[in-house]
């Protein structure tokens, strides 16, 4: 089932807090940032001020020249922080799966909440209403199956907007939009893309990955995925026991079993090493596969006992992979392994189990050596295969630096 992710962003936040406290300011061009005789820039401009061409980051002097009748306010950060905390408290009433970003925006995972509110859209309406009633502020909400599309939707809907992108419609929604709407595309990237004839997100989505890589290096894959409405990032509440994962995209889609196994082994070792460095044990192992047609699946296995050993992570991953690939005939584009449900390492490991103890001792020793001499100083049998496979590019495979997501 497709996820339902909301992105909520308050409209003209600093200005709106001022307007809520002083109704004389409502409906007028208002700027927070300082008096125009001060050096400095606009922090927030009301939508009335924006119609004169004012925007955040513009020098105050320029703003005053473009819109002399605008009301300029110094601003008070404590006030905005209080409003922000009250805003986040309202959101937390709706879902514990909440990830605040800065002061005035947040992601909320609303998957499965339709039964409570009638629909996710109605849930968003209820959120907007409470923000209006309790804070006197307007928020815009985007709803989609992933973060990047939800964020673009809330941005497009501003001000006081609500825009839902149905599951399956991500690409057609993004297709006509200018590339600058994609988070992460600044002025410089926009210029580069325009130079390659790419003006819309749709054009970016179909640009061959090789061309994108020549301009954006390691960021190309992410950009390509986002332009195609693909974004697996989870909504991660701050401070919650997170997950550790590693993944890698093959230079060429593959069904080669030794290669898949060796890569999984390598990724499991990286995850295990991170777990031990953080002093954590994991209960849940997740395998991720993306196929040639970009379909992405995750399969989970819960361990009877929390662990941080490479071998146990790998064993669980390989079982899940074998089962999955026996059903799926497509070639694999990306493979990843992750652990979650983390607990502090303590006495959870069964010390009576000598084989578990031996593995733990071995892993600790390996980590010590790696810390001293680098990660590749020791490689176990299966990862050695990677060396054989990846020494040159002539077989078409490249192993990219695995990304670490927490
Ligand atoms: P934004 O959400 O980017 O802007 P906004 O809320 O004023 O307007 P809207 O979302 O409707 O487009 O940023 C939130 C607050 O962060 C903003 O009110 C003021 C502050 N801010 C700065 O101080 N400097 C900046 O350059 C930006 C962009 C924001
Ligand atoms: Mg805002």
Descriptive notes:
It is a single chain. The chain is of the alpha+beta class and 406 residues long. Helix content is 43%, strand content 20%. The chain contains 16 helices and 13 strands. The strands form 3 sheets. The chain has a 5-stranded mixed sheet with strand order 5-6-1-7-8. A 5-stranded antiparallel sheet has the order 11-10-12-9-13, with helices on one face. A hairpin with a 3-residue loop joins strand 5 and strand 6 (105-109). Helix 4 runs antiparallel to helix 6 and helix 13 (257-278) runs antiparallel to helix 14 (310-327). The longest helix is centred in the middle third of the chain and has 22 residues, at 257-278. The relative contact order is 0.09. The model is unreliable at 347-353 and 387-406 (pLDDT under 50). Bound molecules: thymidine-5'-triphosphate and magnesium ion.
Summarize the structure.
The chain has 16 helices and 13 strands. With 406 residues, it is α+β, with helices and mostly antiparallel strands. It is elongated.
Measured on Cα atoms, how large is the radius of gyration? 25 Å
What summary fits the major beta sheet?
A: 5 strands, mixed
The first-to-last residue Cα distance is 23 Å
Largest sheet, spatial ordering of strands: 5-6-1-7-8
The sequence of SSEs as H and E is: EHEEHHEHEEHHEHEHHHHHEHEEHEHHE
Strand content: 15-25%
Structural class: alpha+beta
Helix content: 40-55%
What is the arithmetic mean of pLDDT?
A: 88
How would you sum up the global shape? elongated
Oligomer: single chain
Bound small molecules, deduplicated: thymidine-5'-triphosphate, magnesium ion
Q: What is the overall number of helices?
A: 16
The unreliable regions are 347-353, 387-406
Number of extended strands: 13
